Protein backbone atom coordinates (compact mmCIF):
# COMPACT_ATOMS: atom_id res chain seq x y z
CA UNK A 1 0.00 0.00 0.00
CA UNK A 2 1.23 3.42 -0.84
CA UNK A 3 2.45 5.60 2.00
CA UNK A 4 0.53 8.71 1.16
CA UNK A 5 1.53 10.64 4.26
CA UNK A 6 5.12 10.66 3.13
CA UNK A 7 3.91 12.43 0.04
CA UNK A 8 2.34 15.17 2.09
CA UNK A 9 -1.22 13.91 1.64
CA UNK A 10 -3.41 12.86 4.50
CA UNK A 11 -5.65 10.12 3.11
CA UNK A 12 -7.97 10.48 6.08
CA UNK A 13 -8.98 13.96 5.04
CA UNK A 14 -10.82 15.16 2.02
CA UNK A 15 -7.96 17.47 1.17
CA UNK A 16 -6.63 17.32 -2.32
CA UNK A 17 -3.40 15.39 -2.81
CA UNK A 18 -0.48 17.74 -2.81
CA UNK A 19 2.40 15.84 -4.36
CA UNK A 20 0.92 12.77 -6.01
CA UNK A 21 -2.37 11.38 -7.15
CA UNK A 22 -3.35 7.92 -5.91
CA UNK A 23 -5.84 6.07 -8.08
CA UNK A 24 -8.71 6.38 -5.63
CA UNK A 25 -8.24 10.14 -5.35
CA UNK A 26 -8.82 10.93 -9.00
CA UNK A 27 -12.53 11.55 -8.49
CA UNK A 28 -11.82 13.99 -5.72
CA UNK A 29 -9.98 16.37 -7.97
CA UNK A 30 -12.67 16.32 -10.61
CA UNK A 31 -13.07 19.88 -11.86
CA UNK A 32 -16.28 21.48 -13.03
CA UNK A 33 -16.38 20.56 -16.69
CA UNK A 34 -18.28 23.55 -17.95
CA UNK A 35 -15.67 24.84 -20.34
CA UNK A 36 -17.30 25.15 -23.73
CA UNK A 37 -16.09 23.31 -26.76
CA UNK A 38 -14.66 26.58 -27.96
CA UNK A 39 -13.56 29.11 -25.37
CA UNK A 40 -14.64 32.49 -26.66
CA UNK A 41 -14.11 36.04 -25.47
CA UNK A 42 -17.85 36.20 -24.78
CA UNK A 43 -17.68 33.12 -22.56
CA UNK A 44 -14.56 34.37 -20.85
CA UNK A 45 -15.59 37.89 -19.92
CA UNK A 46 -18.78 38.89 -21.74
CA UNK A 47 -21.01 40.94 -19.41
CA UNK A 48 -18.46 40.93 -16.61
CA UNK A 49 -17.83 44.04 -14.53
CA UNK A 50 -15.05 42.62 -12.38
CA UNK A 51 -17.45 42.41 -9.46
CA UNK A 52 -16.04 40.66 -6.41
CA UNK A 53 -12.46 40.54 -7.68
CA UNK A 54 -9.83 42.12 -5.45
CA UNK A 55 -7.18 43.99 -7.40
CA UNK A 56 -4.02 45.41 -5.83
CA UNK A 57 -2.11 48.30 -7.39
CA UNK A 58 1.50 47.92 -6.18
CA UNK A 59 2.86 51.31 -7.16
CA UNK A 60 3.23 54.95 -6.12
CA UNK A 61 -0.09 55.05 -4.26
CA UNK A 62 -3.54 55.87 -5.62
CA UNK A 63 -5.49 59.12 -5.35
CA UNK A 64 -9.04 58.04 -4.40
CA UNK A 65 -10.34 61.59 -4.72
CA UNK A 66 -9.97 61.46 -8.48
CA UNK A 67 -13.43 61.00 -10.01
CA UNK A 68 -12.07 58.42 -12.46
CA UNK A 69 -10.74 56.28 -9.62
CA UNK A 70 -13.15 56.56 -6.71
CA UNK A 71 -13.26 54.70 -3.46
CA UNK A 72 -10.56 52.20 -2.62
CA UNK A 73 -10.94 49.01 -0.64
CA UNK A 74 -7.78 49.84 1.27
CA UNK A 75 -4.56 51.82 0.94
CA UNK A 76 -1.32 51.13 2.78
CA UNK A 77 2.24 52.39 2.50
CA UNK A 78 5.08 49.94 3.01
CA UNK A 79 8.21 50.88 4.93
CA UNK A 80 11.05 49.09 6.67
CA UNK A 81 11.27 49.69 10.44
CA UNK A 82 14.34 50.25 12.58
CA UNK A 83 14.69 46.53 13.23
CA UNK A 84 14.26 45.64 9.56
CA UNK A 85 10.62 44.76 10.19
CA UNK A 86 8.08 45.42 7.46
CA UNK A 87 5.54 48.09 8.29
CA UNK A 88 2.26 48.42 6.41
CA UNK A 89 0.51 51.54 7.61
CA UNK A 90 -2.58 53.30 6.35
CA UNK A 91 -1.64 55.53 3.44
CA UNK A 92 -3.15 58.98 3.65
CA UNK A 93 -0.76 60.61 1.17
CA UNK A 94 -2.56 59.32 -1.91
CA UNK A 95 -0.13 59.16 -4.80
CA UNK A 96 3.43 60.51 -4.89
CA UNK A 97 3.89 60.47 -8.67
CA UNK A 98 0.54 60.03 -10.39
CA UNK A 99 1.45 56.67 -11.89
CA UNK A 100 -0.47 54.47 -9.46
CA UNK A 101 -3.57 56.63 -9.94
CA UNK A 102 -3.25 56.13 -13.71
CA UNK A 103 -3.08 52.34 -13.31
CA UNK A 104 -6.05 52.32 -10.91
CA UNK A 105 -8.01 54.47 -13.35
CA UNK A 106 -7.49 51.98 -16.16
CA UNK A 107 -8.74 49.15 -13.94
CA UNK A 108 -11.72 51.22 -12.80
CA UNK A 109 -12.67 52.02 -16.39
CA UNK A 110 -12.47 48.45 -17.69
CA UNK A 111 -13.55 46.51 -14.60
CA UNK A 112 -15.70 49.11 -12.81
CA UNK A 113 -16.91 46.87 -10.01
CA UNK A 114 -13.54 45.35 -9.13
CA UNK A 115 -12.41 46.15 -5.60
CA UNK A 116 -9.21 48.17 -5.87
CA UNK A 117 -6.58 48.42 -3.15
CA UNK A 118 -3.35 50.38 -3.14
CA UNK A 119 -0.06 49.15 -1.72
CA UNK A 120 2.46 51.95 -2.02
CA UNK A 121 6.09 50.90 -2.37
CA UNK A 122 7.49 54.13 -3.77
CA UNK A 123 8.07 57.62 -2.57
CA UNK A 124 9.53 57.47 0.91
CA UNK A 125 13.13 57.15 -0.21
CA UNK A 126 15.05 55.95 -3.22
CA UNK A 127 17.58 54.05 -1.16
CA UNK A 128 16.09 50.75 -0.12
CA UNK A 129 13.31 50.99 -2.63
CA UNK A 130 14.11 47.44 -3.76
CA UNK A 131 13.63 46.10 -0.24
CA UNK A 132 10.36 48.00 0.09
CA UNK A 133 9.19 46.61 -3.24
CA UNK A 134 9.85 43.06 -2.04
CA UNK A 135 8.16 43.73 1.28
CA UNK A 136 5.17 45.25 -0.50
CA UNK A 137 4.81 42.31 -2.82
CA UNK A 138 5.06 39.88 0.08
CA UNK A 139 2.40 41.86 1.94
CA UNK A 140 0.11 41.94 -1.10
CA UNK A 141 0.41 38.17 -1.58
CA UNK A 142 -0.37 37.60 2.09
CA UNK A 143 -3.53 39.68 1.69
CA UNK A 144 -4.77 37.17 -0.86
CA UNK A 145 -5.57 39.62 -3.64
CA UNK A 146 -6.90 37.97 -6.78
CA UNK A 147 -4.75 40.12 -9.08
CA UNK A 148 -1.67 42.22 -8.29
CA UNK A 149 -0.70 44.88 -10.82
CA UNK A 150 3.07 45.44 -10.88
CA UNK A 151 3.91 48.13 -13.39
CA UNK A 152 7.49 48.11 -12.17
CA UNK A 153 10.62 46.03 -11.96
CA UNK A 154 14.00 45.84 -10.29
CA UNK A 155 17.43 45.23 -11.83
CA UNK A 156 19.01 44.12 -8.54
CA UNK A 157 20.14 40.52 -8.97
CA UNK A 158 20.17 39.74 -5.24
CA UNK A 159 16.42 40.40 -5.21
CA UNK A 160 15.77 38.07 -8.12
CA UNK A 161 15.68 34.81 -6.13
CA UNK A 162 13.38 36.25 -3.47
CA UNK A 163 11.12 37.72 -6.13
CA UNK A 164 11.07 34.36 -7.89
CA UNK A 165 10.00 32.66 -4.69
CA UNK A 166 7.31 35.27 -4.06
CA UNK A 167 6.05 34.96 -7.64
CA UNK A 168 5.76 31.19 -7.27
CA UNK A 169 4.02 31.56 -3.91
CA UNK A 170 1.50 33.90 -5.49
CA UNK A 171 0.94 31.49 -8.36
CA UNK A 172 0.16 28.61 -6.03
CA UNK A 173 -2.05 30.79 -3.83
CA UNK A 174 -4.17 31.77 -6.82
CA UNK A 175 -2.94 35.32 -6.87
CA UNK A 176 -2.19 36.44 -10.41
CA UNK A 177 0.87 38.68 -10.68
CA UNK A 178 0.61 40.88 -13.73
CA UNK A 179 3.96 42.57 -14.37
CA UNK A 180 5.35 45.03 -16.89
CA UNK A 181 7.94 43.66 -19.26
CA UNK A 182 11.08 45.66 -19.87
CA UNK A 183 11.74 47.00 -23.34
CA UNK A 184 15.35 47.89 -22.65
CA UNK A 185 18.35 45.58 -22.98
CA UNK A 186 18.71 44.99 -19.25
CA UNK A 187 17.90 42.01 -17.03
CA UNK A 188 15.04 42.95 -14.73
CA UNK A 189 12.53 41.16 -12.55
CA UNK A 190 9.92 39.84 -11.80
CA UNK A 191 8.35 39.93 -15.24
CA UNK A 192 10.78 37.32 -16.62
CA UNK A 193 9.48 34.59 -14.33
CA UNK A 194 7.05 32.14 -15.88
CA UNK A 195 4.76 32.22 -12.83
CA UNK A 196 4.13 35.88 -13.63
CA UNK A 197 1.88 37.16 -16.36
CA UNK A 198 4.17 39.54 -18.24
CA UNK A 199 2.92 42.36 -20.41
CA UNK A 200 4.30 44.45 -23.27
CA UNK A 201 2.53 47.08 -25.36
CA UNK A 202 0.56 47.04 -28.59
CA UNK A 203 -0.61 50.12 -30.47
CA UNK A 204 -4.27 49.25 -31.02
CA UNK A 205 -6.87 51.56 -29.51
CA UNK A 206 -9.26 48.82 -28.30
CA UNK A 207 -8.66 48.57 -24.54
CA UNK A 208 -9.77 44.94 -24.48
CA UNK A 209 -7.55 43.89 -27.38
CA UNK A 210 -4.68 41.70 -26.27
CA UNK A 211 -2.26 39.41 -28.00
CA UNK A 212 -0.42 36.25 -26.98
CA UNK A 213 3.30 36.34 -27.74
CA UNK A 214 4.54 33.00 -29.11
CA UNK A 215 8.09 34.15 -28.36
CA UNK A 216 8.33 34.68 -24.60
CA UNK A 217 9.54 35.88 -22.12
CA UNK A 218 6.92 38.59 -22.75
CA UNK A 219 3.70 36.58 -22.72
CA UNK A 220 1.00 39.09 -23.63
CA UNK A 221 0.65 42.49 -25.25
CA UNK A 222 -1.96 44.94 -23.96
CA UNK A 223 -2.93 48.45 -24.93
CA UNK A 224 -0.01 50.66 -23.96
CA UNK A 225 0.13 53.60 -26.36
CA UNK A 226 -1.75 56.91 -26.18
CA UNK A 227 -3.97 55.90 -23.28
CA UNK A 228 -6.01 58.52 -21.46
CA UNK A 229 -5.62 58.12 -17.72
CA UNK A 230 -6.41 59.98 -14.52
CA UNK A 231 -3.43 61.74 -12.92
CA UNK A 232 -2.80 63.95 -9.93
CA UNK A 233 -4.90 67.02 -9.31
CA UNK A 234 -8.05 65.57 -10.83
CA UNK A 235 -6.56 65.82 -14.32
CA UNK A 236 -6.33 63.36 -17.15
CA UNK A 237 -3.24 62.76 -19.28
CA UNK A 238 -2.34 60.86 -22.40
CA UNK A 239 0.31 58.26 -21.59
CA UNK A 240 2.31 55.44 -23.18
CA UNK A 241 4.45 52.60 -21.88
CA UNK A 242 4.36 48.98 -20.82
CA UNK A 243 3.44 50.14 -17.35
CA UNK A 244 0.06 51.19 -18.75
CA UNK A 245 -0.37 48.05 -20.85
CA UNK A 246 -0.09 46.08 -17.61
CA UNK A 247 -3.30 47.39 -15.94
CA UNK A 248 -5.15 46.61 -19.17
CA UNK A 249 -4.25 42.92 -18.75
CA UNK A 250 -4.92 43.23 -15.03
CA UNK A 251 -8.42 44.45 -15.86
CA UNK A 252 -9.01 41.65 -18.37
CA UNK A 253 -7.92 39.13 -15.70
CA UNK A 254 -10.33 40.74 -13.24
CA UNK A 255 -13.19 40.49 -15.73
CA UNK A 256 -12.48 36.80 -16.37
CA UNK A 257 -11.99 35.93 -12.69
CA UNK A 258 -15.23 37.70 -11.78
CA UNK A 259 -17.10 35.44 -14.14
CA UNK A 260 -14.98 32.36 -13.46
CA UNK A 261 -13.62 32.68 -9.92
CA UNK A 262 -12.54 29.04 -9.82
CA UNK A 263 -9.75 29.55 -12.33
CA UNK A 264 -6.19 29.02 -11.17
CA UNK A 265 -3.46 31.25 -12.65
CA UNK A 266 -2.58 28.40 -15.01
CA UNK A 267 -6.15 28.10 -16.20
CA UNK A 268 -6.49 31.87 -16.45
CA UNK A 269 -3.44 32.01 -18.68
CA UNK A 270 -4.97 29.26 -20.79
CA UNK A 271 -8.19 31.27 -21.18
CA UNK A 272 -6.17 34.35 -22.08
CA UNK A 273 -4.28 32.36 -24.68
CA UNK A 274 -7.44 30.90 -26.19
CA UNK A 275 -9.17 34.30 -26.36
CA UNK A 276 -6.22 36.44 -27.44
CA UNK A 277 -6.83 38.51 -30.57
CA UNK A 278 -4.23 36.56 -32.51
CA UNK A 279 -5.53 33.15 -31.36
CA UNK A 280 -9.26 32.85 -30.75
CA UNK A 281 -10.24 36.20 -32.16
CA UNK A 282 -12.01 39.10 -30.54
CA UNK A 283 -15.31 37.47 -29.67
CA UNK B 1 54.12 44.17 -6.37
CA UNK B 2 52.43 47.48 -6.90
CA UNK B 3 50.08 48.51 -4.12
CA UNK B 4 46.41 48.75 -5.11
CA UNK B 5 46.16 52.51 -4.36
CA UNK B 6 49.19 53.18 -6.59
CA UNK B 7 47.67 51.10 -9.32
CA UNK B 8 44.45 53.02 -8.99
CA UNK B 9 46.31 56.26 -9.13
CA UNK B 10 48.09 55.21 -12.28
CA UNK B 11 44.76 54.28 -13.81
CA UNK B 12 43.38 57.57 -12.63
CA UNK B 13 46.05 59.35 -14.59
CA UNK B 14 44.45 58.03 -17.75
CA UNK B 15 41.16 59.65 -16.96
CA UNK B 16 42.35 62.98 -15.62
CA UNK B 17 40.54 65.59 -17.62
CA UNK B 18 38.23 63.04 -19.22
CA UNK B 19 35.20 64.35 -17.32
CA UNK B 20 34.92 67.14 -19.87
CA UNK B 21 34.91 64.61 -22.69
CA UNK B 22 32.21 62.49 -21.07
CA UNK B 23 30.10 65.53 -20.32
CA UNK B 24 30.45 66.51 -23.96
CA UNK B 25 29.29 63.01 -24.89
CA UNK B 26 26.22 63.36 -22.67
CA UNK B 27 25.52 66.76 -24.24
CA UNK B 28 25.83 65.19 -27.69
CA UNK B 29 23.41 62.41 -26.76
CA UNK B 30 20.70 64.80 -25.56
CA UNK B 31 21.29 66.99 -28.61
CA UNK B 32 20.77 64.04 -30.96
CA UNK B 33 17.78 62.81 -28.94
CA UNK B 34 16.15 66.23 -29.15
CA UNK B 35 16.83 66.44 -32.85
CA UNK B 36 15.61 62.93 -33.71
CA UNK B 37 12.36 63.39 -31.80
CA UNK B 38 11.92 66.97 -33.01
CA UNK B 39 11.54 67.94 -29.35
CA UNK B 40 11.99 71.30 -27.66
CA UNK B 41 14.39 70.04 -25.01
CA UNK B 42 16.20 66.97 -23.73
CA UNK B 43 18.07 66.34 -20.52
CA UNK B 44 19.98 63.76 -18.52
CA UNK B 45 19.39 63.60 -14.80
CA UNK B 46 21.90 61.82 -12.64
CA UNK B 47 21.19 60.23 -9.27
CA UNK B 48 23.18 61.56 -6.34
CA UNK B 49 22.77 58.57 -4.04
CA UNK B 50 24.17 60.36 -0.99
CA UNK B 51 21.68 63.19 -1.01
CA UNK B 52 18.92 61.21 -2.76
CA UNK B 53 18.59 63.92 -5.35
CA UNK B 54 18.47 64.03 -9.12
CA UNK B 55 20.90 66.47 -10.73
CA UNK B 56 20.72 67.90 -14.25
CA UNK B 57 23.98 66.75 -15.90
CA UNK B 58 23.16 67.62 -19.49
CA UNK B 59 20.47 69.89 -20.88
CA UNK B 60 19.78 71.03 -24.40
CA UNK B 61 17.04 73.33 -25.59
CA UNK B 62 14.63 75.05 -23.23
CA UNK B 63 16.25 75.50 -19.83
CA UNK B 64 19.82 74.80 -20.96
CA UNK B 65 21.06 78.06 -19.48
CA UNK B 66 19.54 77.55 -16.07
CA UNK B 67 18.92 73.88 -15.37
CA UNK B 68 22.44 72.46 -15.43
CA UNK B 69 23.41 71.47 -11.90
CA UNK B 70 19.88 72.01 -10.58
CA UNK B 71 18.79 69.40 -8.04
CA UNK B 72 15.49 68.05 -6.77
CA UNK B 73 14.48 65.18 -4.45
CA UNK B 74 14.27 61.77 -6.06
CA UNK B 75 11.45 60.39 -3.92
CA UNK B 76 8.57 61.95 -5.80
CA UNK B 77 7.63 63.04 -9.29
CA UNK B 78 7.75 61.38 -12.66
CA UNK B 79 11.54 61.13 -13.01
CA UNK B 80 11.71 59.59 -9.55
CA UNK B 81 9.11 57.02 -10.53
CA UNK B 82 11.00 56.15 -13.72
CA UNK B 83 14.23 55.75 -11.78
CA UNK B 84 12.79 53.72 -8.92
CA UNK B 85 10.78 51.38 -11.13
CA UNK B 86 13.35 51.07 -13.93
CA UNK B 87 10.51 51.63 -16.34
CA UNK B 88 10.25 54.12 -19.20
CA UNK B 89 7.08 56.06 -19.78
CA UNK B 90 5.63 58.75 -21.98
CA UNK B 91 3.26 61.40 -20.75
CA UNK B 92 1.58 64.14 -22.71
CA UNK B 93 -0.01 67.28 -21.37
CA UNK B 94 2.05 67.07 -18.20
CA UNK B 95 1.64 70.75 -17.44
CA UNK B 96 -1.59 69.78 -15.81
CA UNK B 97 0.39 67.84 -13.25
CA UNK B 98 1.32 70.15 -10.38
CA UNK B 99 3.81 67.64 -9.04
CA UNK B 100 5.67 67.66 -12.32
CA UNK B 101 5.79 71.44 -12.40
CA UNK B 102 7.28 71.57 -8.93
CA UNK B 103 10.02 69.02 -9.33
CA UNK B 104 11.30 69.71 -12.79
CA UNK B 105 10.16 73.05 -14.00
CA UNK B 106 10.44 75.07 -10.82
CA UNK B 107 12.47 78.21 -11.28
CA UNK B 108 12.99 77.68 -14.98
CA UNK B 109 9.87 79.31 -16.26
CA UNK B 110 9.55 76.39 -18.65
CA UNK B 111 6.69 74.01 -18.09
CA UNK B 112 6.67 71.30 -20.77
CA UNK B 113 3.48 69.78 -22.14
CA UNK B 114 4.94 66.39 -22.90
CA UNK B 115 7.62 64.16 -21.48
CA UNK B 116 9.33 60.95 -22.51
CA UNK B 117 11.50 59.48 -19.79
CA UNK B 118 13.64 56.35 -19.61
CA UNK B 119 15.89 55.08 -16.82
CA UNK B 120 19.64 54.95 -17.36
CA UNK B 121 20.43 51.37 -16.42
CA UNK B 122 23.88 49.93 -16.15
CA UNK B 123 24.54 46.48 -14.69
CA UNK B 124 22.26 46.34 -11.66
CA UNK B 125 22.14 50.05 -11.05
CA UNK B 126 19.81 52.84 -12.09
CA UNK B 127 22.11 55.80 -12.67
CA UNK B 128 19.67 58.45 -13.76
CA UNK B 129 16.95 59.40 -16.21
CA UNK B 130 16.95 60.53 -19.84
CA UNK B 131 14.10 62.92 -20.63
CA UNK B 132 12.86 64.27 -23.93
CA UNK B 133 10.48 67.17 -23.53
CA UNK B 134 7.75 68.38 -25.85
CA UNK B 135 7.63 66.31 -28.96
CA UNK B 136 5.63 67.90 -31.78
CA UNK B 137 2.04 68.07 -30.55
CA UNK B 138 0.44 66.94 -33.77
CA UNK B 139 2.11 63.53 -33.81
CA UNK B 140 0.78 60.58 -31.87
CA UNK B 141 3.36 58.62 -29.95
CA UNK B 142 4.37 55.24 -31.36
CA UNK B 143 6.10 52.12 -30.09
CA UNK B 144 8.91 52.81 -32.56
CA UNK B 145 9.69 55.97 -30.65
CA UNK B 146 9.69 54.04 -27.39
CA UNK B 147 12.28 51.67 -28.83
CA UNK B 148 14.34 54.63 -29.98
CA UNK B 149 14.13 56.22 -26.55
CA UNK B 150 15.38 52.97 -25.03
CA UNK B 151 18.35 52.94 -27.40
CA UNK B 152 19.27 56.49 -26.49
CA UNK B 153 18.90 55.69 -22.81
CA UNK B 154 21.19 52.71 -23.20
CA UNK B 155 23.83 54.84 -24.88
CA UNK B 156 23.47 57.55 -22.26
CA UNK B 157 23.80 54.98 -19.47
CA UNK B 158 27.16 53.84 -20.84
CA UNK B 159 28.36 57.45 -21.08
CA UNK B 160 27.16 58.16 -17.54
CA UNK B 161 28.92 55.04 -16.27
CA UNK B 162 32.17 56.28 -17.83
CA UNK B 163 31.64 59.74 -16.37
CA UNK B 164 31.09 58.29 -12.89
CA UNK B 165 34.18 56.12 -13.18
CA UNK B 166 36.23 59.13 -14.27
CA UNK B 167 34.96 61.07 -11.27
CA UNK B 168 35.77 58.22 -8.92
CA UNK B 169 39.25 57.95 -10.38
CA UNK B 170 39.82 61.66 -9.94
CA UNK B 171 38.50 61.48 -6.41
CA UNK B 172 40.95 58.71 -5.60
CA UNK B 173 43.70 60.77 -7.11
CA UNK B 174 42.71 63.79 -5.05
CA UNK B 175 42.37 61.78 -1.83
CA UNK B 176 45.75 60.17 -2.35
CA UNK B 177 47.68 63.39 -1.77
CA UNK B 178 51.28 63.82 -2.98
CA UNK B 179 52.19 60.13 -3.01
CA UNK B 180 49.51 59.16 -5.49
CA UNK B 181 49.76 62.31 -7.49
CA UNK B 182 53.40 61.71 -8.35
CA UNK B 183 52.54 58.23 -9.63
CA UNK B 184 49.78 59.69 -11.73
CA UNK B 185 52.08 62.36 -13.10
CA UNK B 186 54.63 59.71 -14.03
CA UNK B 187 52.00 57.70 -15.86
CA UNK B 188 50.80 60.78 -17.69
CA UNK B 189 54.35 61.79 -18.63
CA UNK B 190 55.26 58.35 -19.93
CA UNK B 191 52.02 58.17 -21.83
CA UNK B 192 52.96 61.34 -23.67
CA UNK B 193 56.38 60.02 -24.78
CA UNK B 194 56.99 58.48 -28.17
CA UNK B 195 59.04 55.61 -29.55
CA UNK B 196 62.50 55.22 -27.98
CA UNK B 197 61.97 57.77 -25.25
CA UNK B 198 58.80 55.96 -24.24
CA UNK B 199 60.62 52.60 -24.15
CA UNK B 200 63.37 54.15 -22.07
CA UNK B 201 60.87 55.75 -19.73
CA UNK B 202 58.99 52.49 -19.24
CA UNK B 203 62.25 50.64 -18.60
CA UNK B 204 63.19 53.18 -15.97
CA UNK B 205 59.80 52.91 -14.28
CA UNK B 206 59.97 49.09 -14.25
CA UNK B 207 63.35 49.23 -12.59
CA UNK B 208 62.03 51.75 -10.09
CA UNK B 209 59.01 49.54 -9.36
CA UNK B 210 61.28 46.49 -8.89
CA UNK B 211 63.53 48.44 -6.56
CA UNK B 212 60.63 49.79 -4.49
CA UNK B 213 58.91 46.42 -4.16
CA UNK B 214 62.11 44.49 -3.43
How many domains in all of chain B? 2
Order of helices and strands of chain B: HHEEEHEHEEHHH
Quaternary status: heterodimer
**Strand segment count of chain A:** 11
Biggest pleated-sheet summary of chain A: 9 strands, mixed
Biggest interface: A-B, 45 and 43 residues
The structural class of chain A is alpha/beta
CATH class of the largest domain in chain B: Alpha Beta
Beta-strand percent range of chain B? 15-25%
Under CATH, the homologous superfamily of the largest domain in chain B reads GAF domain
> What's the number of extended β-strand segments of chain B?
6
The CATH homology group name of chain A: Peptidase S8/S53 domain
Largest sheet of chain B, if any? 6 strands, antiparallel
Low-confidence stretches of chain A: 1-13
Q: What value does the average pLDDT of chain A take?
A: 88
As a whole number of angstroms, the C-alpha radius of gyration of chain B is 22 Å
Largest beta sheet of chain B: what is the strand line-up? 3-2-1-6-5-4
Helical segment count of chain A: 6
Protein model, in words:
The complex is a heterodimer of chains A (283) and B (214). By secondary structure, chain A is of the alpha/beta class. Chain A has one domain: Rossmann fold (3-Layer(aba) Sandwich), CATH 3.40.50. Chain A contains six helices and eleven strands. In chain A, the strands form two sheets. Chain A has a nine-stranded mixed sheet, with helices on both faces. A two-stranded antiparallel ribbon of chain A has the order 10-11. In chain A, α2 runs parallel beside α5. Chain A is globular. Chain A starts with 40 loop residues before the first helix and ends in an 8-residue tail after the last helix. Residues 1-13 of chain A have low confidence and may be disordered. With 214 residues, chain B is α+β, with helices and mostly antiparallel strands. Chain B has two domains: 4-11 and 172-213, no CATH class; 18-168, GAF domain (Beta-Lactamase), CATH 3.30.450. Helices cover 55% and strands 20% of the residues of chain B. Chain B has seven helices and six strands; from the N terminus they run ααβββαβαββααα. In chain B, β5 and β6 form a beta hairpin. The longest helix of chain B is centred in the last third of the chain and has 33 residues, at 143-175. Chain B is elongated and about 70 Å long. Chains A and B meet through β11 and α5 of A and α3, β4, α4, β5 and α5 of B. β11 of chain A pairs antiparallel with β4 of chain B.
Amino acid sequence: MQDVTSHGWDAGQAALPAWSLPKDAVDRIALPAHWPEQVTREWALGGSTGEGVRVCILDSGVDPSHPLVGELDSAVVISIGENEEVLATEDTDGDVSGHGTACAGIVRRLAPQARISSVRVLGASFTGSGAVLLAGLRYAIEQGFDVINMSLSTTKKPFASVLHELADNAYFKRTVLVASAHNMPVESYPWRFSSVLSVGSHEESDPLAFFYNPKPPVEFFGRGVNVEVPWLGGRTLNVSGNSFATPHLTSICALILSKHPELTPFQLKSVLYLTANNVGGET
Amino acid sequence: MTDQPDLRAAVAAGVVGSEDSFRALLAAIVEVARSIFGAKASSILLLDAETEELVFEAVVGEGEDTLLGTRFPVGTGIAGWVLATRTPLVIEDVQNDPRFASDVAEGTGYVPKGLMAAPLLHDEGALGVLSVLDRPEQTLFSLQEMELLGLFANQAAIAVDLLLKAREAERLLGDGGGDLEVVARLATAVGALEDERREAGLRLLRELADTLSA
